[in-house]
């Protein structure tokens, strides 16, 4: 076995040399963060990692394991694995770590009596919320509520957040048809729903988009369109899927073609909304600001604004799935802030999870169910996750990490463009995208096999990076990712491209 410390393969890229003076360094929050990656084993995972995975495999399917981390030793932007390899983590547990591993301020929160008692006396929040519940939410999650959405339902995960939004949409849609919240259910509705028949169980639908991903529970899976392996063998609702634009890159060189493609997709989308009214009316439309699992697919801000306006025109509620894009990842706290929605055009629902650690749905008061227990379960989230989110939000604001991410992403994009324009990337890399969306950057490799080889070689060279879609490489670093991390990432990318 051997040990090596990973450094940039070349001098600091020009774009990174010209980065303006930062007001934030990851050392401000993680003073003992590693100075760089180091790999001790010839392969990652190494023998200890493989053994640990096999041990889990005795009682649980281990085939999705990537590495087996040692979380006690991991720090900030660096993930330590079972073999002691230190990896720069720019995938962040599928975009789920906001600030980094073992952030001292968060560890201090976990040591408080408030946190410990909230953890050990976990309440059934829907019926027995703690006396501090309103305060915890008002000083935490509700301080980042999207514009126009002053209601909040906490949930367990991103999938359950989306399914909660679906249920709210269906109930609000039928309430509107019925004539308002004060109109009682009929006996026929109450009886027929128990047999899963209409009118109590109406033939309504949720419209999603091809290549979109919204979760793996039954309702959310019916709206998921990213990969067949997620859906095969599972019964599904007969819900429609609209085409999502196939944009050409670079965007500034394909303006007319992309405008025509977006126009075509909007027309098909509206056609589905109209035609569904005679079969399974669309009660809700759900969209990701960037189609993430489906291959980091983008569209223009005006396209998304038109999606919202067309849904409103046809009486469909509009759900923005910010499970992966939310909490500063794209250089604004919520990605849909960039769409230019005017007053009255706000989404009806915004769902969140991942980087927030807590999960839930922001919505409008007129989409509250008309009776109790209609959106309800035992846990309805977890108070310690609400406390964790509150502290993270405080730190994000204190250190201006959303603007930091926007600035870092802008400089990082320039550096990648330089590398991807070199001979090392020729014939291997295409469709670089995400400029203007913070560190939410992505590119395609020439083939799926080349993408998988690239991701594997990056890991052996000390960088944990991820893929999506068929052949896309995506970045999902923490909000504390900065200039020094970017130098390592860009240099390692250039080195690996030369080796492929």
TrEMBL record:
PANTHER family from the UniProt entry: 4-AMINOBUTYRATE AMINOTRANSFERASE, MITOCHONDRIAL, AMINOTRANSFERASE
Molecular functions per Gene Ontology: 4-aminobutyrate:2-oxoglutarate transaminase activity; pyridoxal phosphate binding
The enzyme's E.C. designation: 2.6.1.19
GO biological process: gamma-aminobutyric acid catabolic process
GO cellular component: mitochondrion
Record-linked Pfam families: Aminotran_3
The family this protein is said to belong to: Belongs to the class-III pyridoxal-phosphate-dependent aminotransferase family.
Top-level taxon of origin: Eukaryota
Organism: Kwoniella dejecticola CBS 10117
Protein known as: 4-aminobutyrate aminotransferase
Reactions performed catalytically: 4-aminobutanoate + 2-oxoglutarate = succinate semialdehyde + L-glutamate
Required cofactor names: pyridoxal 5'-phosphate
Record InterPro entries: 4NH2But_aminotransferase_euk, Aminotrans_3, Aminotrans_3_PPA_site, PyrdxlP-dep_Trfase, PyrdxlP-dep_Trfase_major, PyrdxlP-dep_Trfase_small
Classification via Gene3D superfamilies: Aspartate Aminotransferase, domain 1 (3.90.1150.10), Type I PLP-dependent aspartate aminotransferase-like (Major domain) (3.40.640.10)
Top enzyme class: transferase
Key words of the record: Aminotransferase, Pyridoxal phosphate, Transferase
């Amino acid at each position: 076995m051997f040990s090596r410390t990973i450094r940039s393969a070349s001098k600091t890229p020009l774009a990174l040399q010209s980065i303006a003076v930062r007001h934030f360094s990851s050392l401000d929050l993680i003073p003992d963060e590693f100075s760089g990656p180091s790999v001790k084993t010839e392969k990652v995972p190494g023998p200890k990692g493989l053994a640990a995975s096999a041990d889990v495999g005795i009682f649980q399917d281990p085939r999705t394991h990537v590495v087996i981390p040692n979380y006690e030793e991991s720090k900030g932007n660096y993930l330590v694995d079972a073999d002691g390899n230190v990896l720069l983590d720019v995938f962040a547990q599928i975009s789920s770590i906001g600030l980094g591993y073992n952030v001292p301020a968060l560890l201090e929160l976990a040591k408080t009596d408030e946190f410990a008692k909230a953890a050990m006396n976990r309440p059934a929040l829907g019926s027995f919320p703690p006396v501090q519940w309103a305060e915890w939410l008002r000083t935490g999650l509700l301080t980042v509520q999207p514009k126009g959405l002053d209601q909040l339902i906490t949930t367990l995960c991103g999938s359950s957040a989306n399914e909660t939004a679906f249920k709210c949409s269906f109930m609000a849609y039928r309430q509107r048809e019925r004539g308002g919240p004060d109109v009682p259910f009929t006996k026929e509705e109450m009886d027929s729903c128990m047999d899963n028949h209409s009118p109590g169980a109406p033939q309504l639908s949720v419209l999603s988009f091809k290549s979109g991903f919204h979760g793996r529970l039954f309702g959310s899976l019916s709206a998921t369109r990213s990969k067949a392996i997620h859906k095969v063998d599972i019964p599904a609702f007969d819900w429609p899927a609209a085409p999502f634009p196939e944009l050409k890159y670079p965007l500034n060189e394909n303006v007319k073609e992309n405008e025509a493609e977006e126009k075509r997709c909007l027309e098909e989308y509206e056609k589905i909304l109209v035609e569904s009214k005679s079969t399974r009316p669309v009660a809700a439309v759900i969209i990701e600001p960037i189609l993430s699992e489906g291959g980091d697919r983008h569209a223009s801000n005006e396209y998304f604004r038109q999606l919202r306006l067309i849904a409103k025109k046809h009486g469909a509620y509009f759900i923005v799935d910010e499970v992966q894009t939310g909490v500063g990842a794209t250089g604004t706290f919520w990605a849909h802030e960039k769409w230019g929605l005017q007053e009255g055009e706000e989404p009806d629902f915004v769902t969140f999870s991942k980087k927030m650690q807590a999960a839930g749905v922001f919505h409008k008061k007129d989409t509250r169910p008309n009776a109790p227990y209609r959106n309800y379960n035992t846990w309805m989230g977890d108070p310690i996750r609400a406390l964790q989110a509150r502290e993270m939000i405080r730190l994000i604001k204190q250190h201006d990490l959303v603007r930091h991410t926007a600035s870092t992403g802008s400089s990082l994009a320039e550096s990648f463009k330089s590398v991807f324009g070199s001979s090392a990337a020729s014939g291997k890399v295409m469709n670089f995208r995400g400029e203007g969306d913070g560190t939410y950057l992505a590119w395609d490799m020439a083939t799926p096999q080349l993408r998988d080889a690239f991701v594997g070689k990056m890991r052996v060279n000390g960088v944990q990076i991820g893929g999506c879609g068929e052949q896309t490489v995506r970045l999902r670093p923490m909000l504390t990712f900065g200039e020094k991390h970017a130098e390592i990432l860009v240099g390692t990318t250039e080195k690996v491209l030369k080796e492929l």
